[in-house]
Amino acid sequence: MTGKQKQRFWRVVQTSLILIATFVMLIPIVWIFLASLKTHVEVYQLRLFFTPTLENFGEVFREPYDLGSKLFNSTIVAAVTVIFAIPIATMAAYSFSRFRLKFETTILVIILATQFVPAVVIILPFFVMFRDLGLLDTRIGLILVNLAIVMPFAIWMIKGFIDGIPMDTEEAAMVDGSSRMQVIWNIVLPMAAPGLLTAGIFCFILAWNEFLFALILTNRDAVTLPIGLALFRGEEGDLWNLLSAAGIIIMAPMFVLALAIRKYFVQGMTMGAVR
After folding, report:
1. pLDDT tens per residue, range 35-68
2. Which domain holds residue 208?
3. Distance of CA 218 to CAs 10, 85, 126, 197, 266, Å?
4. What's the pTM value of the predicted model, to 2 decimals?
């Protein structure tokens, strides 16, 4: 084959693989979407044509499922986690990036190592501590747990973004009379904004989808959406039509968020990889 034929061949192969991978990833989502529009009987029938209904989406918000309160809890927990995590992680990341600290490498490794500790190992200490502090089954307790989960990840990610900002820019601003805080506010934060947004998105997703801690530390008042899915079970077994409707509700904010910030997301991911 000629050079152009080889390029055309590999382009076809690449495109085909991408389409196959996309198709495989979309199958579960399409199945859940179609199941959310079916009745309990139709969901077990492999029919391409059926009469869609939106009744499932209304049913999940009524008793005994009350998905609205779970949605509220998940939104509050995930949003407040991000609101606190990103500023704190940014300050820590800036310190690691711009100042030479004693035992800096060791501290960074310890921070990273916390991500490899299985959640099941630390859930019992959290449970005992929250029980003694009266934080069981509270949104504050879940926020604290989620902060402990996302902070190491956020610090490492944001540090990579700040490392990519030239030091010369900050030094020039300080020579002109700007203070360190002015440099951070006027130069570092605007330049690192795509990276901060990327870190915030990942933190939100982690907090939104967190299951194990919410399962152990809540039972009624602070139950979140992932735990609420366990409620969709009746005498006839799993209510797949209601489970699918609830699953769409859980996924919808992630899709909307991804579409709204996709440009900044890609920019932030590439920014942290370039020095």
Report:
1. 999 988 888 887 778 888 999 999 999 888 899 9
2. 57-271
3. 52, 22, 12, 29, 36
4. 0.86
